[in-house]
Amino acid sequence: MGYPILESIRSLLPLVDEFVIGVGQSDDDTKAMIESLNSPKIKIFDSIWDTKKTKGGLILSEKTNEALDRCTHDWCFYLQADEVVHENDLALVRQAIDRSDAQSEVQGLLFQYIHFYGSYSTIATSRRWYRNEVRVVRRSSGIRSHNDAQGFRVGSLKPNVIASGARIFHYGWVKPPKVMGQKSKLLNRWWHGNSKDHEFETFEYARQYGLVPYNGPHPAVMRELIAGQDWTFDPRRALTDWTLKDINLLASDLLESLTGYRIGEYKPYRLIAPRNKLVSRPK
User: Fold this and answer.
1) Please, are residues 271 and 106 in contact by the beta-carbon 8 Å criterion?
2) Which end of the chain is more exposed for a tag (fewer CB within 10 A), N or C?
């Protein structure tokens, strides 16, 4: 389905002591691809996805927790198969974990998201797309993957987190249009069954509000995929493309630029300030 799964794994391998990967039943070579990385850190377990569970994407958190339960260390980095970490940010993650280790109230680390859409040179920035999410969790806090596995909960509560300063490069919406339609159709079944399959038969990327050019660096592991892009996507919009929802989004952006507040932002976490370390020096 065009996931950058090997690039995703490679981006995180240098940081972790072990890499637990749940591989569901399939008729392709996904498992062999992962095994080809030949890393002693990788621990694969086979997982059966019940295809009758098609409500709200809940099976995604169920499968995430299966992997979390197999981790043997306390600090766990959760990475989905379309998410990649930049090599320049690994040190930031390590520093944030070291800083948080003695603070029992810290249950996770927050990451800034860069959502690519339609191509590797376009990103989505409207408030329809989440800006931050928890991707490192402290297992001993009792934290669990929640709902459709976008975020986490500790019991019924949002986890206490600090900002890691690191980024997640999200490539889930960058594929050839035909592959994107197929992927969207199959993934959507975990929410609605096959009742909406027809919506993806002639998939086209939408010229939606909030798409802007991206000229920054990508993770090094993505170079080959980016160079191999063989389709085009023009995000420019005509006046006839605008809807009332777009005007509301524009008004929200204008308000945010004036106040710094984003209306209706989804925040499934509690951002807390890290405690300062006090260093005693001799006089």
Assistant:
1) no
2) C
Question: Residue 281 — pLDDT band, cuts 50, 70, 90?
Answer: very low
Phi and psi angles of residue 123, each rounded to the nearest 5 degrees, phi first: -125, 155
Q: Where are the alpha helices (DSSP H) in 83-174?
A: 90-100
* Domain ranges, ordered by start, for the chain: 1-274
Strands (E) across the chain are located at 19-24, 42-47, 75-77, 83-85, 108-117, 122-124, 132-138, 143-146, 151-154, 160-173, 211-213, 270-271
Does residue 107 contact residue 138 with C-beta atoms inside 8 Å? yes
Contact 61, 147 (CB under 8 A): yes
How confident is residue 232, by pLDDT bands cut at 50, 70 and 90?
A: very high
> What are 111-141's pLDDT values in tens digits?
999 999 999 999 999 999 999 999 999 999 9
Q: CATH class for domain 1-274?
A: alpha beta
Judge residue 253's burial from the number of C-beta atoms within 10 Å of its C-beta, 0-12 exposed, 13-18 middle, 19 or more buried: middle
Please name every residue paired with 146 in a beta bridge, in sequence order, or none if there are none: 151
| Cα dist from 154 to 62, 65, 99, 149, 278, whole Å | 15, 13, 21, 14, 29
Read off the tokens for 234. Answer: 């023009």
Strands 160-173 and 108-117: parallel
Q: Which range, of 32-41, 197-206, 231-240, averages the lowest pLDDT? A: 197-206
